[in-house]
Design a protein that fits this description.
The protein has four helices and eight strands; from the N terminus they run αββαβββαβββα. It has helices spanning about 1-10, 65-75, 115-130, 185-195, and strands at about 40, 50-60, 80, 85-90, 100-115, 150-160, 170, 175-180. Strands 1, 2, 3, 4, 5, 6, 7 and 8 form an eight-stranded mixed β-sheet that branches. The longest helix is centred in the middle third of the chain and has 14 residues, at about 115-130. The two termini are about 20 Å apart. Residues about 5-30 have low confidence and may be disordered.
């Protein structure tokens, strides 16, 4: 209960909240010590099967349309838990070049079927494309990002009963942080905390 109150207090300090319902909030008394986790580059794990993933969703254009669409598509891949969604300023904005705010949300996805990290990354790129994501390359151009999906952390699969006809995949004990996303942004850290991602 104390942990929940601390999270609530931290969340109140963030900018205005979007009116998006929380789904299946996972409650646990064990907090995750992010600093103690292994960090790996995504390139070194491309061929590894993944069973769980923590994602950061972001949109600065028509978020009210594309966040629900992304959540729906992710739910088709497995069990989804969501953090609260927040509206945050674009940290690269300046007075000379103002930029629209981002709507951000963290997602904990337990995959129904394990996927290699490379395949998972491609799946998320396809999902971004389904949300009409256009990758603008012109310098100083204000980007309209309908959907951005970043992998923050993963759990790899360990194989059990590999001698039987039905291979059983179980999650390894510890989360692995993707080095290209660390250190986490404030809203990502709060999202992970709110989802109560912890050692099993």
């Amino acid at each position: 209960m104390r942990q929940h109150q601390q999270v609530s207090q931290l969340l109140k300090k963030l900018p205005k909240k979007l009116m998006i319902p929380k789904l299946m909030m996972h409650k646990t008394s064990t907090d995750l010590n992010v600093e103690a986790l292994t960090q790996c580059s995504p390139e070194s794990l491309q061929a590894q099967p993944v069973v769980e993933v923590v994602l950061a969703l972001g949109s600065n254009y028509q978020a009210e349309k594309y966040l629900p669409l992304a959540r729906e598509r992710l739910a088709a891949l497995g069990e989804v838990r969501l953090s609260t969604a927040f509206q945050n300023p674009d940290f690269t904005a300046t007075t000379q070049l103002p930029k629209p705010d981002y709507n951000n949300q963290c997602v904990h996805l337990v995959l129904t079927t394990p996927m290699r990290l490379q395949q998972l990354q491609q799946t998320f790129k396809t999902l971004e494309g389904d949300c009409n994501r256009c990758r603008q390359t012109k310098p100083n151009q204000v980007r309209r990002v309908t959907m951005d999906i970043d992998i923050l952390m993963i759990k790899l699969a360990s194989v059990e009963n590999s001698l039987s006809k039905n291979i059983v995949y179980l999650p390894t004990k510890n989360w692995i942080i993707m080095t290209d996303r660390y250190p986490f942004k404030a809203h990502e850290r709060l999202g992970i905390k709110e989802l109560a991602i912890a050692h099993n």
